[in-house]
Design a protein that fits this description.
It is a single chain. The chain is α/β, with parallel strands linked by helices. The protein folds into 2 domains: about 350 residues, Metallo-dependent phosphatases (Purple Acid Phosphatase, chain A, domain 2), CATH 3.60.21; about 210 residues, 5'-nucleotidase,  domain 2 (Alpha-Beta Complex), CATH 3.90.780. The strands form 8 sheets. Strands 1, 2, 3, 4, 5, 6, 8, 20, 21 and 22 form a 10-stranded mixed beta sheet that branches. The protein has a 6-stranded mixed beta sheet with strand order 11-12-14-15-19-18, covered by helices on one side. A 5-stranded mixed beta sheet has the order 27-24-31-26-32, sandwiched between helices. The N and C termini lie far apart (about 70 Å). One of its GO terms (cellular component) is outer membrane-bounded periplasmic space. Pfam families: 5_nucleotid_C, Metallophos. InterPro entries: 5'-Nucleotdase_C, 5'-Nucleotdase_C_sf, 5_nucleotidase/apyrase, Calcineurin-like_PHP, Metallo-depent_PP-like.
Length: about 575
């Protein structure tokens, strides 16, 4: 019989870093007592160089307190900035290695471009990916780079019907750690169809039983399920001391002292399991001090999230207008006294990697002006009282233009609103604005052929999904914007009849879309493969064909050709909301 002992470990953890290797400028709203008035100042926050320094400090502190230490990433390192647009997983692999990550969960954005990019990423990492519910047992082994037999993928073990897990030695006492990914991965990302995801509760219970059977009673889960799902999972499972999570960008802790309010307590304990998450975009690091009883139950869970700040504060977001010396000292003194702030010097090792390998190309793109924005271009997902998005239709027009330039005879284009991430201000637009802000998801375009009735069904399905109209939707991001296509959506009509006046533009003329005619369309690979309400597009006549151009690349070429971008003047969408009182549109 195994004789277990108590164990103490400190986990440093980050999640949803989304290639934010560089610091961000954040606003801090200080209490009136600091400067005798409510004041906002700006600070440089986060970035991988500061995370690296913070991890080293946390590790030293843990060892001084005779605690074991481990640094975890709870998924979604891909996408988000120019660094990913340019280097895909290569930069992430090198920099995550360099900052000392010891294990990582699989995030949904890791699979935006299929399994192959994850396989390439893992060939370069020094740490394992923990994803116990990813079933790779049916993976096609003829692929250029397969995942199933990689030593650093702790996935589903089909032969034993459990998830693989990592064992961390904590002063002679084993602690098992396994990872969980979103079950509906195929609904929000692009995993290859020969791999699937198991139910997290069933798989977790089987894995926990196997861990206990192997003489280990101390268990931690590394999750990319989202905060609310982690809280529910804590209720559903027994025998788990902690769930270290990601996906929802939840910043636990009280940040009212900095103007950010409160989002639950750090290390929320439910059913004997503590749940933690550390925000997003490499702005903060969580530090969880986890103590186990000898029987594996949670003895205590303490710690905090801390914003990782530089030591200079300014009046403006561009960080060029500095505070006077006295004001700066008072601000710095106040922030030094705050437990949710950690001042961090930049690690010169990480800075050197960025300077030598990655920054030059990024800086070059940040200075390339390719077009002029003539007026403010507003982006909203669902049309509101001010109308629809003004930038999304231009983005779709760019897709159509680029596909035709490449020789594809497309009739129209469709794009989901969530794929566009920013409004645009008047003035020059750069490659960096497009790839790093407007269209940061490095997803390719696809051309596909479907009958008109499937287009009609896809438009309705996507809007139903966006507004939860008779379905359990996945978010507002599925709302469809179009080019060379126009339609009316009447919310209060019967399901299946909500799309009206559906027309396609042919040789300058608007013609009714025929349900039985085959049309060619261009969309992102995300939309073309039926995600979030677009499932009708999967009933294609000709299988979707990759254009081998990303969304950002297509729009960049379109903007360069147009030279000037203004709000569309032609009304393509009439959205009649469920009140049926008014029409809002483009």
């Amino acid at each position: 019989m195994t004789k277990h002992r108590t164990a103490k470990i400190t986990f440093a953890h980050i999640n949803d870093t989304h290639s934010h290797f560089e610091p961000s400028s954040i606003s801090l709203t200080l209490p009136t007592s600091v400067l005798e008035t409510e004041t906002s100042v700006y600070a440089s926050c986060g970035g991988f160089s500061r995370i690296s320094s913070a991890v080293k400090e946390a590790k030293s502190h843990a060892y001084l307190k005779e605690r074991e230490f481990m640094f975890l990433h709870a998924g979604d390192c891909f996408q988000g900035t120019l660094y990913f647009s340019l280097y895909k997983g290569l930069a992430n692999a090198e920099l995550l290695n360099a900052i000392g990550v010891e294990a990582m969960a699989l995030g949904n954005h890791e699979l935006d471009m299929g399994n192959g990019i994850v396989a390439d990423f893992l060939d370069r990492t020094d740490f394992p990916m923990l994803v116990a519910n990813w079933d790779l047992s049916q993976e096609d082994q003829s692929k250029p780079n397969t995942l199933r037999d990689k030593h650093n993928v702790y996935a589903y073990d089909a032969s034993n019907d459990i998830g693989r897990y990592l064992v961390k030695d904590v002063d002679g006492e084993p602690v098992a750690i396994f990872g969980l990914a979103i079950e509906n991965m195929a609904g929000i990302a692009n995993p290859d169809p020969d791999t699937s995801f198991k139910n997290v509760v069933e798989l977790s219970n089987k894995t926990i039983d196997a861990i206990h059977h192997n003489g280990i009673n101390k268990i931690v889960i590394l999750s990319h399920l989202g905060y609310e799902r982690d809280l529910l999972l804590a209720k559903e499972l027994d025998g788990v001391a902690a769930i270290i999570g990601g996906h929802t960008h939840t910043m636990q802790g009280d940040f009212t002292n900095l103007g950010y309010g409160v989002t639950d307590e750090y290390a929320k304990v439910i059913n004997g399991t503590c749940v933690v998450q550390a925000g997003c975009n490499a702005l903060a690091m969580g530090q969880l001090e986890l103590d186990f009883n000898a029987d594996g139950t949670l003895a205590s869970a303490t710690g905090k999230n801390q914003l990782l700040l530089g030591r200079q504060f300014t009046v403006d977001a561009t960080r060029t207008e500095h505070l006077d010396a006295d004001t700066h000292d008072r601000v710095k003194q106040f922030l030094t006294e705050q437990s949710n702030i950690r001042f961090c010097a930049k690690d010169p090792i990480i800075e050197n990697i960025l300077n030598m390998k990655y920054r030059p190309a990024v800086r070059k793109l940040q200075t390339q002006h390719i077009a002029e924005i003539t007026e403010p271009l507003r982006h909203v997902r669902i049309p509101d009282h001010k109308g629809a998005s003004q930038i999304a239709p231009l983005v779709v027009s760019g897709f159509v233009w680029k596909a035709r330039e490449l020789g594809f005879n497309v009739d129209f284009g469709i794009h989901n609103a969530g794929g566009v991430r920013a409004s645009l201000n008047p003035g020059p637009i750069t490659c960096a604005d497009i790839s790093g802000k407007l269209l940061p998801f490095a997803i390719g375009l696809m051309v596909y052929q479907v009958k008109g009735k499937r287009v009609r069904q896809a438009l309705e399905g996507a809007i139903n999904n966006a507004i939860d109209n008779g379905v359990e939707g996945t978010g507002t991001g599925s709302f469809p914007y179009v080019a060379d296509l126009k339609y009316t959506y009447r919310c209060c009509s019967e399901e299946g009849a909500r799309i009206e006046s559906l027309q396609v533009k042919k040789q300058g003329q608007w013609l009714d879309l025929d349900d039985n005619t085959v049309y060619s369309s261009v969309s992102s690979g995300y939309t073309a493969t039926g995600k979030e309400g677009y499932s009708a597009l999967l009933d294609y006549v000709v299988e979707p064909q990759a254009v081998n151009v990303t969304m950002a690349e297509a729009f960049e070429d379109y903007a360069r050709d147009m030279r000037q971008l203004s709000a569309p003047t032609e009304k393509l969408i009439s959205y009649i909301p469920c009140e049926c009182a008014q029409v809002v549109g483009l």
